[in-house]
Amino acid sequence: MLGPWREAFPRIVTPFLEEVDETLKLSLSRVIEEGPHRTLTETSNAQPAIFATSIMILRILEQEFGFSVSDRIQVTLGHSLGEYAALCASGHLSFKDALLIVRKRAEVFESAAKTAKQKYGDDVGMVALLCEVHHFDILLNDVRGFLASDASRNSTPDNGPPLPHVVIANINSSNQVVLAGSLPQIKGLLARLADFGGHDPRSVVLKEACPFHHPFMQPAADFTRKHLSREGVVTFPGLVPCISNVTARPFEYVFRDPCYIHLANGCIGRVNNYKILSLEAQQKPSFGGTLSSTWTRKGKYDAGLALALER
User: Fold this and answer.
1) Does residue 134 carry a catalytic annotation?
2) Can 80 be counted among the known catalytic residues?
């Protein structure tokens, strides 16, 4: 993956990858280039790899093509992990601080997922549901209804086993919702949607061992709050504002809680990316494109991309 970038921009890419490896005290660049795939897709490697390659491309744009965030961009925003790339691009987080936090947070994610599996005995993960746009609101309302109803919390011969460990993790678009938690319980929810709601959405089990944006990930939220709350880690003002996944507003304008509270809440709370992008689209006529790269495979959850609006 990195070979073409290194060949095209050796002056920038080679020292950047050396910086990544030195910061993490491990050869992440070799894992990205050589694999094996199973090692690369482990959360503790995949997330820092996604983040690092995103910022690498931003560095190339800046140093090779004279791109300037402060001159060309009004706001940055990112999907889930991509929020860290967006915060780094907007000048609120240093690259080294963000890289270390992303790596260590990913390790906590892995540990929390293993703990949840051991405690409850179920495989955990994430499942995306897709349907026709005109049917999506009905599907989403029924999902919410099943998860919120007494029937989903109590086991009876009529309504089946309870679903206490399933949450809506992401609303990604006008026809896609992502569920997180116990995979057997998500399967049970899909059966109820078919039996009682007449729904037959396409379901895709994502290639993630961790149920992100789920209360199971509370240890990662605690870690994030602790490390981002240290003085000088998150700085204001940045070069440009960055939009929060949690509030859909710039971090600077979220007065009630500090920035690190919202980043911590993003580990365990729902992310409504569709709402965020819709609000931004209403304010400006068009997006300027991607500010950083998309590093993903089919079924991979974290796209690691930061979007920006042109001035």
Assistant:
1) no
2) yes
